[in-house]
Design goal:
By secondary structure, the protein is of the alpha/beta class. The chain has one domain. The protein is built from six helices and eight strands. Strand 6 and strand 7 form a beta hairpin. The two termini are 14 Å apart.
Length: 168
């Protein structure tokens, strides 16, 4: 049975920058939890950042890939460079995935770590750009299929394809 890496905030863990969660009660996710497939991850906390913490955004509109390439930083709203903990947390998520043979991740959209399709643009104005966060970019670069909580049906289909390949 394939495991799935899932953002801890989607599982109801109070790990977000504001001390809250983004619990997702979608039936697919709830079934995976019941099946014991879900491995929780919060890259920002795993990278050493506290809860709560100042909001942070990637300084480049291309997002996580630019951070991984060393051409962009992750800055908090107070001007503090938090790139190092974001990278450390992404590496921890990748290590967890590799250790458990995980090939699918469902991560929180809009997060500077976990956003799979969108993140905030670095201006702290609420504007978004179509780019992945740091962890999503690192996981994708390592070959994982990364989805947002709005794509759980797609993630389930990907999981089913992978499991069918394992049987064949």
């Amino acid at each position: 049975m394939e495991s799935v890496l899932v953002s801890a905030c989607l599982l109801g863990e109070a790990v977000r920058y504001d001390g809250g969660d983004m619990r997702c009660d979608h039936e697919v996710l709830q079934r995976w939890i019941g099946e014991g497939r879900v491995i929780a991850v919060c890259p920002e906390v795993d990278g050493g950042l506290p809860v709560p913490r100042p909001p942070a955004e990637v300084t480049d509109p291309t997002g996580g890939p630019a951070v991984l390439a060393g051409t962009a930083r992750v800055m908090d709203i107070n001007g503090r460079d938090v790139t190092a903990p974001f990278l450390k947390g992404a590496e921890e998520a990748l290590t967890r995935a590799r250790t458990r043979g995980i090939r699918v991740a469902v991560l929180k959209e809009d997060s500077p770590s976990c956003g799979s399709r969108y993140i905030y643009d670095g201006t702290f104005t609420g504007a978004k750009v179509p780019a992945p966060g740091v962890t999503a970019a690192m996981l994708r670069a390592a070959g994982l299929q990364v989805f947002s909580e709005a794509q759980l049906a797609d993630a389930e289909r990907a999981l089913q394809r992978l499991e069918a390949e394992n049987v064949a």
